[in-house]
Amino acid sequence: MPAFRGYGRLALRATFALGAAAVVVVGDATGWLHLRAALAIDWACGLYVLYRIGSARVSPLYLLLWGPLAWFLPKSSALVLYLFGGRKHAALAEAKREVNRVAWSLAEPPETQGNAVRLLGDRHGRDTLEALRAEILAARRRIHVATYILSPDEVGREIVSLLARRAREGVEVRLLVDAVGSWGTPLIVCRPLLRAGGCVARFNPTLPLQGKGSANWRNHRKLAVFDGRVAIIGGQNLGLAYMGERPSNRRFRDCSFRLEGPVAGALERVFIADWCQATEEPARRFADPLRERQVAAGAARVEVVATGPDVAGDPLWETYARFFATATSSITVVTPYFVPDRRLFGLLDDAARRGRRVRLVIPRRSDHRLLDFARRWYLRTLHEAGAEILFFKPDVLHAKLVVIDGAAAVIGSANLDMRSLFLNYEIAAVLRDPAAVRAIEDYVAGLEPDCARYSEDLYRRSRTWQGRMGERLSRILEPLL
Known about the structure:
The structure is a single chain. The protein is α/β, with parallel strands linked by helices. It has 3 domains: 2-84; 90-302, Endonuclease, Chain A (2-Layer Sandwich); 315-480, Endonuclease, Chain A (2-Layer Sandwich). The chain has helices at residues 2-26, 31-54, 62-72, 74-84, 90-106, 126-138, 154-168, 191-195, 262-279, 287-291, 315-326, 342-353, 369-374, 376-385, 418-422, 434-447, 456-461, 465-477, and strands at residues 116-120, 142-147, 172-178, 199-203, 223-226, 230-234, 256-260, 301-307, 330-334, 338-339, 357-363, 388-392, 401-404, 408-412, 416-417, 426-432, 451-453. The strands form 3 sheets. An 8-stranded mixed sheet has the order 8-16-14-13-9-11-12-17, with helices on both faces. A hairpin with a 3-residue loop joins β13 and β14.
């Protein structure tokens, strides 16, 4: 791979050099020099495309999509990858480190001990909505909310209305929404909050291309922090599809967690870094909240894991890899989309073959049918290795939970797919608290009566040539989904 990266850098330099040469040659009457320069630019662009795809942590099948594009449409492919490709951004990583430097210069890093954890996971998301209402009304100084989707429905409007009410009462309110996830939400939905003196920002806009880094990097975090004291994280966006007062058969089955204690300060630091990226406000402006440290509220140990293009490495992937490799008795994964990378899948497969109880709970049909095709090969292989695969039937299961040996759990916004692992801004927390882990196990057990097991009939159908063809086609596109 290092040699390949060297070729990629060489190709990129050649692209710029030959581009400049082409400008000079255009005015020359010697047409064949112009042609040779154009061909050289095409070759350089093609090498650049292959370098970017080869250095990405994706399936080799992904090359089947980009290889022909690099050959037939080299310049267009290079432009697309320049705008939408890549996994890391050095400047953003440095900005994130600057926020941490400011925070560390003001106070010590937050403790992982001394937290209280409460699962919010009733059937219709009512308890999450009630917790948001209660914490918004109880906040005294500041409210920081980040969401991937802010829906223009009664839930989204109610949350904005409550935030506006608190802003009028003198509470600092900041609302950060992802520019793609909330694409269909009109600005008028947030107007009451803006008029009340609150702040609203869109994360990484794509049109016009004014965001920082790739337009493919989305902020998938669902995070609300109140006075740096209490935080709510999980998989639920702000909309009727995720939570509501009345039951609905069109609502995703999901859960969130209320965290109180020092962990809320660590989560607020993540929000501040994202806000500074979106608004270009200096980190020093948030000296007061960064300086604060909260007193213990319980006995739970909670570690925050923030991942994305602005951090070094892939900390969430590394957390999963460590847990899957060291599990001694059981691994339970609840996720709406199951398209892991080769390493994590290999660890799950190996754990099942070594006699560990590997259990996967997924929706029978998710809201992304192409990903349902892409997961078939993984499910079939895990089934052959002895893993338990449960299909949740009533609704789209949208929860994201991993439990290891009944002793530790990973919660948050990340799915077990390529986008969450390597592209999105995600937030997760590792819980090491017997009561919290037991509550998650009870939540998973409550899903099982509504699940169907992976059947031999389904196994045979997935091995037909039509099924395998669909699998291969979907796996080529899986890093984009």
